[in-house]
Write a structure and sequence with these properties.
Number of domains: 2
Structural class: alpha/beta
Order of helices and strands: EEEEEEHEHEEEEEEHHHEE
CATH class of the largest domain: Alpha Beta
Distance between the termini: 39 Å
Number of helices: 5
CATH topology of the largest domain: Metallo-beta-lactamase, Chain A
Length: 282
């Protein structure tokens, strides 16, 4: 708490503060930043919006530039030449020494190759893409289609590692869930945390097994306890959800159920997959 959380894939900045258990943090869907424009989000932090709006990226993926003179770029974004040019234009006359990647989804990491080729900067990330678990034979859909399997960092970092540059020191914080290799990057001196897709200001973040995994299961458990015969858990949990995101929300619910099955709290017949029947374990 007490950190400003910067969200590289919608991307507004809020100041996190201690809250009571019954307090609610509303979504913030007011984000007027225009694609390709470098804006100072905090002292020493600039952000550039990519023109890739979608139900999953909202107005688009945001890349961050940390520092002045000798800088780091966090999450160069999708395979988008125009966005790479906008980032390089934003740092014209400066030296990019570091490229940091929070995770290996196609809206965050593919542009790394362009920025590295243009700058020679060292790439830091947890590692190549990997699934959180093996895929079940009974699974018909593979949500890992959004993975960037070509990405490989120059330096693999783990929780607690500190990446130092000119005027900044960013600490890697392991935040698996949205992907197995998800990291946040904390800047304790400025009380800023670049959280990637671990938290988003405009929506809940998808967790889609086998790509991701979830251990925060209370919403699914409460729904099962109230309506054990109800197969419409997504509608019960995600009230008012954009219909275009119902499939994604289903995989987030699956992530909860998968963990509950592993803990013996919920039972199912066969593998825990989309379309399965779930009930409270006796």
């Amino acid at each position: 708490m007490g950190f400003a959380a910067l969200y590289p894939s919608y991307e507004t900045a809020i100041l996190a503060s201690p809250m009571a258990d019954n307090d609610d943090i509303p979504f913030n869907r007011d984000f007027p930043l225009k694609p390709g424009v470098a804006e100072e989000a905090r002292p020493g932090v600039r952000r550039v919006l990519c023109n890739n709006p979608s139900p999953f990226t909202f107005t688009g993926t945001v890349s961050y530039i940390v520092g002045r003179g000798k800088v780091a770029i966090i999450d160069p974004g999708p395979d988008d030449e125009a966005h790479a040019k906008a980032l390089l234009d934003a740092v014209r006359g400066e030296t990019v020494t570091h490229i940091l990647v929070t995770h290996t989804h196609r809206d965050h990491s593919p542009n790394t190759a362009r920025i590295k080729a243009a700058t020679g900067a060292t790439v830091y990330a947890e590692g190549p893409h990997r699934a959180s678990r093996p895929r079940f034979e009974s699974e018909k859909h593979n949500p890992e289609s959004g993975a960037d399997r070509d990405f490989k960092p120059d330096v693999e970092v783990k929780n607690g590692d500190v990446i130092e540059g000119a005027g900044f020191a960013l600490e890697a914080v392991a935040t698996p869930g949205h992907t197995a290799n998800h990291l946040a990057f904390a800047w304790p001196e400025r009380k800023i945390n670049f959280v990637g897709d671990h938290v988003m200001g405009w929506s809940t973040s998808i967790v889609a097994p086998p790509d991701g995994s979830m251990i925060d299961y209370m919403a699914s458990l409460a729904t099962l306890e109230r309506r054990p015969e109800d197969s419409t858990m997504v509608r019960a949990i995600y009230i008012g959800l954009d219909p275009r995101l119902s499939g994604a929300a289903g995989y987030s619910v699956l992530a909860h159920l998968e963990d509950l099955v592993a803990r013996g709290i919920v039972a199912t017949d066969g593998d825990p997959v989309i379309g399965g029947n779930y009930r409270m374990a006796s």
